[in-house]
């Protein structure tokens, strides 16, 4: 998939910025129990999102995707619904399959107080995952046709946005890039995008919460 997480983030902000209350502060209240950690939710089938309502008024649910350090909005699941602790959601059939990296954000409409689910997966046989199965890093220079089939090096500084079990995006922000490896071109100008496969990721819970795994509930006290 050629779309970078940065362009996805920009598109998401442009679409969603005015659609619901802006989240403020740190996650608190309304702990979400389903979807649970690494649970797989099928597309096109009604699925009940559940949480423990701790605030009055209405809430908004937003679908997110990305590694835990850089998760971004995809679309609004429901806006200004009663905070009853449950909502039946039918995931869009256009969602890409992924064993993790999806999440839901619950936002209190009146205050901007918010809460996250743990990261879960989506199953979709019609739209397979774009995650690479190769252990070799690959890179594409966006301003030219040069493509690197092995690891790349550059004279520029590198900004690493995240790492996960599937892939991460690295951007070289200089205007002059020198690429080494089996490339069709030795140099190009513009940003360099690198997909890197790593072996592990860490989910950080900044407060006490509960996690549902394989129909068992685990309480994280601190």
Automatic annotation (TrEMBL):
Which UniProt key words apply to this protein? Signal
Is the keyword Signal assigned to this protein? yes
Q: Name one Pfam family in it.
A: Kre9_KNH
Residues in Yeast cell wall synthesis Kre9/Knh1-like N-terminal domain copies: 35-122
Name the domain of life.
Eukaryota
Signal peptide from the UniProt entry = 1-19
> Is this entry keyworded Membrane?
no
What is the recorded name of this protein?
Yeast cell wall synthesis Kre9/Knh1-like N-terminal domain-containing protein
Protein's organism: Cryomyces antarcticus
